[in-house]
From TrEMBL:
SUPFAM superfamilies: PLP-dependent transferases. Its cofactor is pyridoxal 5'-phosphate. This is Cysteine desulfurase. It catalyses: (sulfur carrier)-H + L-cysteine = (sulfur carrier)-SH + L-alanine. The keyword Transferase applies. Its EC number is 2.8.1.7. Residues 48-416 form the Aminotransferase class V domain. InterPro entries: Aminotrans_V_dom (IPR000192), Cys_dSase_SufS (IPR010970), Cysteine_dSase (IPR016454), PyrdxlP-dep_Trfase (IPR015424), PyrdxlP-dep_Trfase_major (IPR015421), PyrdxlP-dep_Trfase_small (IPR015422). Keywords: Pyridoxal phosphate, Transferase. GO terms for molecular function: cysteine desulfurase activity; pyridoxal phosphate binding.
Length: 428
């Protein structure tokens, strides 16, 4: 991390919403920053309730990316020339913004990947193949996204590790003790979600990390749903690895974040080989760079990382506490309104929950519910949400899921509820 990067990281993009909403959250000012929201679909105002799958992008992010391409775009880290140095400064400034966002100790602990999925695969492949052996156990929860299941199954095929899965109850709640009970002398890694994308359950990660560390076991946290909803402090949590998806945090696709405690990263071999990650290559041997560059083979997602930096600026200007409070208000309102609908059942009623509401109805299959809602302008997701074991736990193949972001309103919840009454009339 160079000084220029630090200076750029402190420079905030001017914001319309942020100026208005710090302290007092003004959702209309936020909405004004998201061009895509202001449209009709099938002649109905769009109610975008699918932010858990991917969020929309504020103008500030789109502009930062346009500006990069229009004024200073070049490859990073390689050039002596002006554009390359400028672009490298912006790219490294984004890394510093991520560091600050997660309260990591240093920017070298932030690895840019192509997505959250790649971040988890990186840990499973690199840490897993070096440090884990046949019979070692990976502790997961029932609520994991496939991205935090399948990489460990691939590792199981290669090394013979075993998977242990902590249960959840009928409300979708998880007790820290149920995870901690699975940690024993053979545990090699605890890999758990921070917030379930299918149920919204918030997992007591800090307590689990403390217990795992007492047993000398590292913890990877899948923070894809936590990063957009609640303040995250990796040092307070104590996590060894923390992965999140920028495209769910109002940033672009094509880039992902892996935080790794520096000593962990330093002990790990490269995940992929190529340019940028070596200090010297001969045909006999290559020497690898230090983290994070050791894990960033090839040309990275340059402009996407810069867009992520702008998204973090945006979120921080609006205020992470204000966002968490807004989400909690919407969740409470949506839960109350949906509970009033006869024949609709909310799946996942954990005591600590983020702004995600999964539901099924007595009248129609989730996919049919989703299709009718779409015709009423309401965008929800219907399916297994890349969490089939979670669905299996409830004896379901799919649910409809409304998920809320920074820009959603109670009026949109009302639109959802009205549309659901329509579905009930059609099928019920
Ligand atoms: C979205 C999501 C992922 C995967 O993120 P990608 O963007 O598909 O890489 C992993 N875990 C959770 C909890 C998610 O919500």
């Amino acid at each position: 991390m160079n000084d220029a990067g630090n200076a750029l990281a402190d420079k905030q993009t001017p914001l319309s919403a942020g100026d208005n909403v710090r302290g007092a959250f003004d959702v209309e000012a936020v909405r004004a920053d998201f061009p895509v929201l202001h449209q009709e679909v099938y002649g109905k105002p769009l109610a975008y309730l699918d932010s858990a799958a991917s969020s929309q992008k504020p103008r500030q992010v789109i502009r930062a990316m346009d500006e990069a391409y229009e004024t200073y775009y070049s490859n990073v880290h390689r050039g002596l020339h002006y554009l390359s140095q400028t672009c490298t400064d912006h790219f490294e400034a984004a890394r510093e913004k991520v560091r600050r966002f997660l309260n990591a100790e240093k920017a070298e602990e932030i690895v840019f990947t192509r997505g959250a999925t790649e971040a988890i695969n990186l840990v499973a492949a690199s840490y897993g193949r070096k440090f884990l052996k046949a019979g070692d156990e990976i502790v997961l929860t029932t609520m994991e996204h496939h991205a935090n299941i399948v990489p460990w199954q691939l590792l199981r095929e290669q090394t013979g590790v075993e998977l242990k899965v902590a249960p959840i109850d009928d409300n979708g709640d998880i007790r820290a003790e149920d995870v901690i009970d699975l940690i024993g002398p053979k545990t090699g890694m605890v890999a758990i979600t921070h917030i379930s994308n299918a149920l919204g359950t918030v997992v007591p990660v800090k307590q689990i990390v403390a217990a795992a560390h007492e047993a000398g076991v590292p913890v990877l946290v899948d923070g894809c749903q936590a990063a957009p909803h609640i303040p995250v402090d990796v040092r307070d949590l104590g996590a060894d690895f923390y992965a999140f998806a920028p495209h769910k945090l109002y940033g672009p696709t094509g880039v992902g974040v892996l935080y790794g405690r520096y000593d962990r990263l330093e002990s790990m071999p490269p995940y992929q080989g190529g340019g940028e990650m070596i200090s010297r290559v001969t045909f006999e041997k290559s020497n690898f760079k230090k983290p994070p560059h050791r894990f960033e083979a090839g040309t990275p997602s340059i402009v996407e990382a810069i867009g992520l930096g702008a998204a973090i600026d945006y979120v921080e200007t609006v205020g992470r506490e204000a966002i968490a409070a807004h989400d909690a208000r919407l969740l409470a309102y949506a839960t109350r309104r949906l509970s009033e609908i006869e024949g609709l059942h909310i799946v996942g009623q954990a005591t600590d929950k983020a702004a995600i509401v999964s539901f099924v109805t007595d009248w129609a299959h989730a996919h049919d519910v989703g299709t009718i809602l779409d015709r009423a302008g309401v965008a929800v997701r219907a399916g297994h949400h890349c969490a089939q074991p979670t669905m299996d736990r409830f004896g379901l193949s799919s649910t409809a899921r409304a998920s809320f972001g920074i820009y959603n309103t109670e009026a949109e919840v009302d639109q959802l509820v009205d549309a659901l009454h329509m579905v009930r009339e059609i099928f019920g």
